[in-house]
Design goal:
Layout (H helix, E strand, L loop, with lengths): L1 E7 L3 H21 L2 E8 L16 E2 L2 H6 L5 E4 L7 H10 L4 E3 L2 H18 L3 E2 L11 H7 L7 E5 L2 H13 L3 H10 L8 H4 L2 H15 L9 E2 L7 H10 L1 E12 L2 E12 L11 E8 L3 E8 L3 H21 L21 E11 L4 H11 L4 E7 L4 E8 L2 E2 H13 L3 E10 L3
Parallel strand pairs: 1-2, 1-4, 2-3, 4-5, 5-6, 8-10, 10-17
Antiparallel strand pairs: 7-9, 7-11, 9-10, 11-12, 13-15, 13-16, 13-17, 14-15
The protein binds NADP nicotinamide-adenine-dinucleotide phosphate and L-homoserine.
């Protein structure tokens, strides 16, 4: 049973996928009975040197030729970015060709529309590799767990930032050194600003939350902050308090609605997500019947991601060969999406203060006046100034923001030197 595959993009993931299909196709055939034949690969620059040289007759610099080639029955989009990827995927679906993509930006921004179009045409649109690289998480959320009332999804979904934070915590590497290493290992996007600003994780958070809660959450509804504010001294102070920093995508649903956010978060060192190191990703799912589930593994890199893409290709090829109208995998309702300012958060605050009698009382009064309650406080150093570390109890984000503004106005506070959210469990 032969299926003609067209690949849009022959870079980190597309290159690894094409190489696998061209050199290990027989192994796939013996396991699945499918002969997945690469018929075309689109790249931007035909003259570029590549780690896996492709047969020249397969290469084209015209992606539309891949989609329109009658020998291509299934299209794999691995170009990245919004355009022309969105246009090409739409054209393929309209032509009745199943599509597999790893493009989280495309799915997070245009997914609603593309999923509807695929349903209308009765073809598959699969995107397992768009979140968590090799980790199966899209299929579990949209199929295996479709009958569960999921309450929370917490993910480490960006390998680059997890790698950087691990290097900073474990070997004391500077941010710039760790980022350069992540880029050389192929984890970071060509422009790493999407990784370090939290925007890559926000796209993934929007996809996870939409599937978990059955409400379409556009990625611009996801509050996002990156890792660039993190200071080495806070990594050390947090470690003394029993915490370490992770860039988390946190999505939860309660009677108040759905909240989705991405920010640097301190988590207890004995939390299951604390052991997720380097470029590894993990997604923690909570629900009343299943209690807690943890999905973990390589979240980036050409080969691991190609495995997830290949899994989708195999599923889509089977559906194609079955010849039936593919039924919808997901439907979206209209749940209420909460403003970030309403969501309860806890904080770690580091204040540099004047070390005089009555200072602590003023600070505690200011925090309390903004309806924030202190869980613990540590003073470090004595002299003209002292460092105070606070951990607060959960209360609305807006109250914490108001407390921080008020603290900055106190004469005894030289500086609110750091403010970071803490995971509330
Ligand atoms: P990449 O290395 O930059 O590769 C992109 C490929 O697309 C290149 O071969 C490029 O051609 C080609 N291309 C781009 N624009 C084109 C155009 N207009 N016409 C023809 N070809 C074009 O990207 P990647 O890392 O493989 O990522 C691909 C997708 O997978 C992205 O959506 C990314 O977010 C997603 N993803 C990546 C990873 C990862 O670890 N890298 C993990 C999960 C998901 P040239 O080679 O000639 O430049
Ligand atoms: N740049 C992404 C990461 C690749 O670091 O996780 C996977 O989407």
């Amino acid at each position: 049973m032969r299926v003609g595959i067209g690949i849009l993009g022959g870079g980190t993931v597309g290159g690894a996928l094409a190489h696998r299909l061209l050199t290990e196709g027989e192994a796939v055939t013996s396991k699945t009975g499918l002969e997945l034949e690469v018929r075309k690969i689109a790249v931007r620059d035909l003259a570029k040197g590549r780690p896996y040289p492709f047969p020249p007759d397969l290469l084209t610099d015209s992606p539309a030729d891949v989609v329109n080639d009658p020998a291509v029955q299934l299209v794999v989009e691995l170009m990245g970015g919004l355009e022309p990827a969105a246009d090409l995927v739409m054209q393929a679906i309209e032509a009745g060709k199943p599509v597999v993509t790893a493009n989280k930006e495309l799915v997070a921004i245009r997914g609603d529309e593309l999923i509807k179009k695929a349903e209308e045409r009765g073809v598959s649109l699969l995107f397992e590799a768009a979140v968590g690289g090799a980790i199966p998480i899209i299929r579990p959320l949209s199929a295996s767990l479709a009958g569960e009332r999921i309450s929370e999804v917490i993910g480490i979904v960006n390998g680059t930032t997890n790698f950087i934070l691990t290097q900073m915590c474990e070997s004391g590497a500077r941010y710039e050194e760790a980022l350069a290493e992540a880029q050389s290992l192929g984890y970071a996007e060509a422009d790493p600003s999407a990784d370090v600003s939290g925007s890559d994780a926000a796209s993934k958070a929007a996809i996870l939350a939409s599937l978990a809660f059955g409400t379409w959450i556009a990625s611009d509804r996801v509050h996002r902050e990156g890792i660039d504010q993190l200071q080495p001294e806070d990594i050390a102070f947090a470690a003394d308090l029993g915490y370490l920093p992770k860039l988390l995508a946190i999505a939860s649903e309660s009677e108040a609605g759905i909240g989705v956010r991405v920010h640097t978060t301190l988590i207890p060192t004995d939390h299951p997500l604390a052991s997720v190191r380097g470029s590894q990703n993990a997604v923690y799912v909570k629900g009343p019947a299943v209690d807690e589930l943890l999905f973990a593994g390589p979240g980036a890199g050409g080969d691991p991601t190609a495995t997830a893409v290949l899994g989708d290709i195999i599923e889509a090829a089977r559906e194609l060969l079955a010849g039936a109208q593919v039924p919808p995998r997901v439907r979206f309702g209209s749940g209420r999406i909460r403003d970030f300012s309403d969501i309860d958060t806890s904080w770690y605050l580091r204040l540099e203060v004047v070390d005089e009698p009555g200072v602590l009382a003023q600070i505690a009064t200011t925090i309390g006046a903004n309806r924030v309650s202190i869980e613990s406080m540590v003073q470090i150093g004595r002299g003209e100034t002292a460092t105070l570390l606070f951990i607060t109890h959960p209360s609305p984000e807006s109250d914490h923001q108001a407390a921080i503004v008020a603290l900055r106005q106190l004469e005894v506070v030289r500086q609110v030197a750091a403010a970071m959210r803490v995971l509330t469990v």
